[in-house]
């Protein structure tokens, strides 16, 4: 299993999440990663992946947009400040940083932050609580991932199956299935 280089580990599990864009002095601030650190983490991860597996297609996905009204109605923790734990402006800064790292690294990026906002009513169509995707949001991201994989010359039909399919797993003894 791949682990990021020490320089990218920062605060443990603080990598590659929309939570990195939380605003530091608000209720979810403990999840916040400073923008420059986020950028350096992404660079280190991309560099490590390209070095270890040079033929692997790496695709970055930006943080999604934020529906601040939805975040106020569905806070992570009880919060009486009247301020959302994250803003669309802040998420946009992280999305732009992600895009810049992808460009510098010569890899694809799915700018889901911008893509979702192209649709009227995106706030409720794609986000159920101001952050997490609805079925429609998941579908849009899925379609973008499939399109990006196609650009890399990959498809479900062309990828080798190297793990058992779900229906082939012995439910009574799952580990036995993976020994084959």
Automatic annotation (TrEMBL):
<comment type="similarity">
    <text>Belongs to the 'GDSL' lipolytic enzyme family.</text>
</comment>
<dbReference type="GO" id="GO:0016788">
    <property type="term" value="F:hydrolase activity, acting on ester bonds"/>
</dbReference>
<dbReference type="InterPro" id="IPR001087">
    <property type="entry name" value="GDSL"/>
</dbReference>
<dbReference type="Pfam" id="PF00657">
    <property type="entry name" value="Lipase_GDSL"/>
</dbReference>
<protein>
    <recommendedName>
        <fullName>SGNH hydrolase-type esterase domain-containing protein</fullName>
    </recommendedName>
</protein>
<dbReference type="InterPro" id="IPR045136">
    <property type="entry name" value="Iah1-like"/>
</dbReference>
<dbReference type="InterPro" id="IPR036514">
    <property type="entry name" value="SGNH_hydro_sf"/>
</dbReference>
